[in-house]
């Protein structure tokens, strides 16, 4: 989607870098492999996300071939699986629970990953709609890690390639005005 098209849906209240507006969560993926060097750059960005006490609790389990992706499909809820099956890369973000702010750090890593992906011409879509305990079992995730999200990664496809019920939702969402998110001195 071009910058002009993005502006139809998203306008910042203050001047910010365009990458923040360009990043959104499409569901239509091309069945096109992501080159290794491009994929590693997005995970490298996630690695450099801020981390409390430099604990670095985030880990990613990725699926890049058909067999591994099909294994991931076993724990992704049907509503998400219907559109994410074409994504060439799936990743599960987990975080080590030994740090009290591991979820905050994992979310930051996801944010860095998604912004770098946008800069690389990729799209990402994070999903909370999956069976966490089944993912833990299928992927052999130890108990000291929380299973956070599943991320679909790849190149954007045409919205017409999606099932009809997803096509109307295939556009960037806006955000509430900034003044509704900031409070002076106390919550109002």
TrEMBL record:
Record has Oxidoreductase as a keyword: yes
Domain Nitroreductase span(s) in chain numbering: 22-78, 80-155
Residue ranges, annotated region (Disordered): 165-188
Gene3D superfamilies: NADH Oxidase (3.40.109.10)
Annotated keywords: Oxidoreductase
GO terms assigned for molecular function: oxidoreductase activity
Entry keyword annotation includes Nucleus: no
Amino acid composition bias (Basic and acidic residues), ranges on this chain: 177-188
InterPro entries named in the record: Nitroreductase (IPR029479), Nitroreductase-like (IPR000415)
Entry similarity comment: Belongs to the nitroreductase family.
PANTHER family named in the record: NAD(P)H NITROREDUCTASE YDGI-RELATED, NADH DEHYDROGENASE_NAD(P)H NITROREDUCTASE XCC3605-RELATED
Protein name: NADH dehydrogenase
Organism per entry: Metabacillus litoralis
């Amino acid at each position: 989607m071009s910058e002009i098209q993005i502006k139809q849906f998203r306008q910042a209240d203050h001047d910010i870098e365009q990458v923040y507006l360009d990043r959104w969560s499409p569901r239509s993926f091309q069945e096109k492999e992501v080159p290794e060097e491009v994929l590693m750059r997005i995970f490298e960005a996630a690695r450099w996300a801020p981390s409390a006490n430099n604990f670095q609790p985030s880990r990613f389990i990725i699926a890049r071939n058909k067999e591994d992706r099909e294994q991931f499909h076993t724990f992704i809820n049907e509503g998400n699986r219907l559109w994410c099956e074409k994504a060439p890369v799936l990743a599960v973000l987990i975080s080590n629970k030994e740090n009290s702010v591991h979820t905050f750090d994992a979310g930051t890593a996801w944010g860095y990953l998604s912004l770098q992906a946008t800069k690389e011409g990729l799209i990402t879509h994070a999903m909370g709609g999956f069976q966490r305990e089944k993912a833990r079992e299928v992927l052999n995730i130890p108990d000291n890690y929380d299973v956070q999200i599943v991320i679909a990664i790849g190149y954007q496809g045409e919205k017409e390639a999606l099932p009809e019920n997803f096509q109307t939702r295939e556009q960037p969402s806006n955000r509430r005005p900034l003044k509704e998110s900031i409070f002076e001195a106390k919550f109002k």
